[in-house]
Write a structure and sequence with these properties.
The complex is a heterodimer of chains A (184) and B (293). Chain A is mainly alpha-helical. Chain A has 2 domains: 14-113, Fumarate Reductase Iron-sulfur Protein, Chain B, domain 2 (Orthogonal Bundle), CATH 1.10.1060; 115-184, no CATH class. Chain A contains 10 helices and 2 strands; from the N terminus they run H-H-H-H-H-H-E-H-H-H-H-E. In chain A, helix 7 (118-130) crosses helix 9. The radius of gyration of chain A is 20 Å and the shape is elongated. In chain A, 37% of the residues are buried. Helix content of chain B is 46%, strand content 10%. Classes of the chains: A mainly alpha (184), B alpha/beta (293). The interface between A and B is large, with 62 and 57 residues.
C-alpha cells in the first residue's frame, strides 16, 4: 500500500494549471458544488475502492479539479475505478457530489480526449445494435419460451439509433481510442 | 386500496443471465396479488452509459419513463441499477425545469415528452410499502425458522439519499432485513453490511471488486450465516457466480449460497425449490434446503 512507499513530492508547474477549469466544470450537472470542498478527506476515508487501490483517491481528484490540473485528470486511468456506490456523496459534510464530479470528468475524457475503457465501447455498441446492454443470445430466447416466460419485447432500434445520434454518441463510438484494464 | 399493478422493467442483465431471479419474482408476486404488465419496446435503462455520456443516459432513461407514462403505470424494477437510474432521472427531471426542457428537446426527435406522472419502485419498495408486511406474513405457509441468513441490499436502492424518497436509512437500511425476517429466518448482523459489491467496475478492474467481495463473504461467514440474500442481479453475480473464482484466487473456502430474496420468500410461501430455480445457483444450496422441512 502507498503508506509504506517512499514519499516523492509532486511538482506542479504553473503552466499546467487551467484556472478556468473549475468554473467550467461547476456549470455541469453533478459537479456544481466542487468549490465547496475543503479537503476534509471523508470521501477517501469512506470510499470502498480507495481501501483496495493505491491510486483512486476522491479527495485528490477534488483538489486537482480546484487547482485546474485538467490534463492530468483527463489522462488519469484511476478515474474509471469509481464504482458509483455514492457513499462519498452521502457522507460529504459540504454536500459535494464527488461521484458526480468523477462522472463529469469521465464524460469529458471521452469527449475531449476521445478515450474510454474498451468495455464501455462494447456495451454502447450492444445497445446500439440490440437495445439491450448485453447481446442476449438466441439460446436464451428459446430457453425463456421453455421456462414459460413471456417473449422479450422487441426494442425500437430506430429510436435507439436516434438517441445515440442526437446526444452526440454515435460519432464518438466510431473514432474513440480504447484501453483495456486499469491498474489498481 | 388501489390495485397492485405495475409495469415490469426487466432490464438487460436479468434476461441475459439470471432468469432464476425473474422466475422466482414472478411466482412470488403473482401469489401476493401483484399484477405485472410487460413493458413494450423498452431499452437499456441508461445506467451503463452514464460514465461516457450523461445526456445519452438521461435520454435512454427518460424514454423508458415516457413508455410507462403512456400506460399510466408505475414501474417495478428487480435490479438496483435500473431502479437507481430510472428513479433518479424521474426525480431530477421533476425538480429541474431546465434539465427537463433539455431532455425533452432530445426526446422530441423520437416523438416523446416527459411529464412526470409516474413513480419508479424497486421490488423491495413494492413488497414493503405497497403489498405490506401483513399480507406477506399471511402468505408465509412454511416459516423458515431453522435458518439464519445475512442480507446485502446493495448501494443503488439507498444511495444517493437525496433522490431516494423511500424512507430507508442508507447508513442503516432495515427494509430488506425486515422482509427477510418475515420468512421466519433469522436475519444476522455482520460487519460492514452496507459495503458496495464492487461489480460496476469489474469491466475495467477485477482485483478491487474481488477483494471487496472476498471481504464481504468473510464477514458473512464469520457470523455463520447459511446464506446471503440479495435483491440486485449485479450484487448476486458478484457473490454467487464469482464465488468459486474468489475462493481460488485467495485460497479460501466460503461455500455460501447466495439467494435472490424472492427465492427465500418463495420457499417460505411453500413453493418447491425447483419452481424457484434454485438449481441454477452457482453455489449449491443443498445443505440449506435440507434444513427446510
Amino acid at each position: 500500500m502507498s503508506e509504506t512507499q517512499e514519499y516523492t513530492p509532486t511538482i506542479i508547474k504553473a503552466e499546467e494549471l487551467d484556472p478556468k477549469f473549475k468554473y467550467k466544470l461547476s456549470k455541469m450537472p453533478g459537479a456544481e458544488k466542487l468549490m465547496l470542498c475543503f479537503q476534509c478527506g471523508t470521501c477517501t476515508a469512506d470510499c470502498p475502492i480507495s481501501r483496495f487501490s493505491d491510486f483512486y483517491r476522491p479527495r485528490k481528484i477534488a483538489r486537482m479539479v480546484q487547482l485546474g490540473l485538467k490534463d492530468r485528470l483527463l489522462s488519469d486511468d484511476a478515474l474509471w475505478l469509481c464504482s458509483t456506490c455514492f457513499t462519498c456523496v452521502d457522507h460529504c459534510p459540504q454536500g459535494v457530489e464527488i461521484a458526480g464530479i468523477v462522472r463529469v470528468l469521465r464524460n469529458l475524457t471521452v469527449r475531449e480526449k476521445g478515450v474510454m475503457p474498451i468495455v464501455f465501447k462494447e456495451l454502447a455498441s450492444n445497445i446500439l445494435r440490440t437495445g439491450y446492454v448485453y447481446q442476449i443470445p438466441e439460446s436464451r430466447h428459446k430457453r425463456r419460451e421453455m421456462q414459460g416466460l413471456p417473449t422479450l419485447p422487441k426494442p425500437n432500434l430506430e429510436d435507439v439509433k436516434k438517441m445515440f445520434r442526437i446526444t452526440g454518441s454515435s460519432g464518438i463510438l466510431e473514432t474513440v481510442q480504447t484501453f483495456d484494464k486499469v491498474k489498481s | 386500496m388501489p390495485g397492485l399493478r405495475y409495469l415490469l422493467f426487466l432490464g438487460c442483465v436479468i434476461p441475459y443471465r439470471l432468469s432464476s431471479y425473474e422466475i422466482s419474482a414472478r411466482k412470488v408476486l403473482e401469489k401476493l396479488g401483484v399484477e405485472l404488465v410487460e413493458m413494450p419496446e423498452f431499452n437499456c435503462c441508461g445506467f451503463p452509459m452514464d460514465p461516457i455520456n450523461h445526456d445519452l443516459m438521461l435520454t435512454l432513461a427518460t424514454r423508458n419513463l415516457c413508455l410507462a407514462e403512456k400506460q399510466n403505470l408505475n414501474i417495478l424494477t428487480l435490479c438496483n441499477g435500473c431502479f437507481s437510474i430510472l428513479n433518479e432521472t424521474n426525480k431530477m427531471l421533476e425538480g429541474d425545469k431546465e434539465l427537463r426542457e433539455k431532455t425533452n428537446g432530445y426526446l422530441k426527435e423520437i416523438g416523446m415528452e416527459f411529464k412526470g406522472t409516474i413513480k419508479v419502485k424497486h421490488l423491495v419498495h413494492v413488497l414493503a410499502e405497497d403489498v405490506g408486511f401483513e399480507k406477506i406474513k399471511d402468505a408465509v405457509k412454511n416459516p423458515l425458522t431453522n435458518l439464519h441468513v445475512a442480507q446485502h441490499g446493495g448501494c443503488h436502492i439507498v444511495r444517493p439519499a437525496k433522490y431516494l424518497g423511500h424512507g430507508d436509512d442508507p447508513e442503516n437500511p432495515t427494509m430488506l432485513k425486515n422482509l427477510v425476517r418475515l420468512t421466519g429466518a433469522e436475519c444476522l448482523n455482520y460487519m460492514d453490511e452496507t459495503e458496495c459489491c464492487g461489480n460496476p467496475i469489474i469491466g475495467v478492474n477485477e482485483d478491487v471488486p474481488f477483494q471487496m467481495a472476498r471481504e464481504k463473504l468473510g464477514h458473512v461467514k464469520a457470523v455463520k450465516a447459511q446464506a446471503l440474500i440479495t435483491v440486485c442481479p449485479f450484487c448476486h453475480m458478484m457473490y454467487d457466480l464469482n464465488q468459486p473464482r474468489i475462493e481460488r484466487n485467495f485460497n479460501e473456502k466460503f461455500g455460501i449460497p447466495v439467494l435472490h430474496y424472492t427465492q427465500l420468500l418463495g420457499l417460505a410461501m411453500g413453493f418447491p425449490p425447483e419452481e424457484l430455480v434454485l438449481n441454477e445457483l452457482r453455489v449449491k444450496p443443498a445443505e440449506l434446503l435440507s434444513q427446510i422441512s
